[in-house]
Specification:
The chain has 81 residues and is mainly α. The protein has a domain of 48 residues. Helices cover 77% and strands 0% of the residues. Helix 1 packs antiparallel against helix 2. It is elongated. The two termini are 25 Å apart. Keywords: Membrane, Transmembrane, Transmembrane helix.
């Protein structure tokens, strides 16, 4: 199970920049095709909203690759700071 978590971490880590790349490319094509302010605002909002999600996906994938999720606590007694 831990190897699946690490493999999924690699997928999450790589999926975020790829998704961001395709989102930006699509935005540039759509803005070029219809250069009105509505299109620019719409795609800017999409990029602004998706950027933190992509960063979160990369952070989650990084920690999954490191094995931080290998042992998850089963009760609150196991949680220590």
């Amino acid at each position: 199970m831990n190897s699946i978590k690490k493999f999924a971490g690699i997928i999450w880590f790589l999926l975020a920049p790829v998704g961001m790349y395709f989102l930006i490319i699509t935005a540039l094509h759509e803005i070029e095709k219809t250069p009105v302010i509505d299109t620019k605002i719409q795609w800017s909002v999409f990029i602004i909203v998706f950027a933190p999600i992509a960063i979160g996906m990369m952070i989650f994938g990084y920690y999954a690759m490191k094995g931080e999720y290998d042992h998850l606590p089963t009760s609150s007694d196991e949680i220590t700071d």
